[in-house]
Amino acid sequence: MFGVGASMEKNSWALIIRELSLFLRLAIPPPMCVDPFDWWKTHEGQFLNVGILAKQVLGIPGSQIETEILCNLVGVLTTLGHYHL
Fold first, then answer.
1. What pLDDT is recorded for position 55?
2. Sign of the alpha-carbon dihedral angle for 62, 65, 69, 74
3. Is 1 helix (H, G, I), strand (E, B) or coil?
4. Nearest-5° Cα angle at 62, 60 to 64
5. If you placed Cys at 66, which of 2, 4, 22, 61 could pair as Cys (CB 3.0 to 4.6 Å)?
6. Mean pLDDT (whole number) for 64-81
7. What is the model's pTM?
């Protein structure tokens, strides 16, 4: 019962580690480093699992100010949505 699931999980981790290892050995020229989102969009087929992780990490706001702006915007949109219902 536990053997099959554990084996699949082990294979998944091995795949992710192998993919990450390949990514870390890449030599990405500086002009391609300007916009990480564009780079990942172009190369997502090469690194499916690492790409998912990269997009999640890159999607984190860089400062508290950006987070506060997003929260305020969501609050305004929510309030507007209540008035139009």
1. 82
2. positive
3. coil
4. 100
5. 61
6. 78
7. 0.52
